[in-house]
Amino acid sequence: MQLRKICNHPYCLNGAEIGFDGSTDEKLVQSSGKLLVLDKLLAKLHAKGHRVVLFSQFVSVLNILEDYLNMRDWSYCRLDGSTGRTRRTLDLRVFNATGSKTFIYLMSTRAGGLGINAQTADTCILYDSDWNPQVDLQAMARVHRIGQKKKVHVYRLVTKGTVEERILQRAEKKLYLDKMVNRDSTRSSVK
Predict the structure, then answer these.
(1) Please, which of 52, 79, 130, 135 could form a disulfide with 123 given CB 3.0 to 4.6 Å?
(2) 91 phi and psi, to 5 degrees?
(3) CA dist., res. 17 & res. 22, Å (int)
(4) pLDDT digits 0-9 by tens, 110-119
């Protein structure tokens, strides 16, 4: 778990963010290769008027990303396990509203599964991957919903040569195994 935290951002470790003031300190971005790449990607997406849903499994990562978005002065909404149903409904309405100025929606991959429809977003970013590939597929599906009118681009951030790469390889094997096990069940039900 500690290796996964380091891949996401060093500030996920207790005591690592000494001296960070939380506002305009570029150390937040410079401390993490993954956040550096995300910063460049989001700057381009923001300049071109794209709408983004960004997923992470970790609330600590969402906290860091929230600090980052405040630093860049970009409008956002956030959904995690502590977000109430009323707040979630309101934020989704604001995000999906015609002409909405909300650039990005931060979401925990494990929070709120039912009723999440971010069909006005055209970009899905998976900041970190789950051991269970179905969780990531469900996260991507929240953007590919009824009402989606744009082509959706999906980005998955993975740090090369780390535990994240192994997680992704195992998840792909699980998807393949699932496909092989279930392929005959769909054929027999059609008869």
Answers:
(1) 52
(2) -60, -40
(3) 10
(4) 775 566 788 8
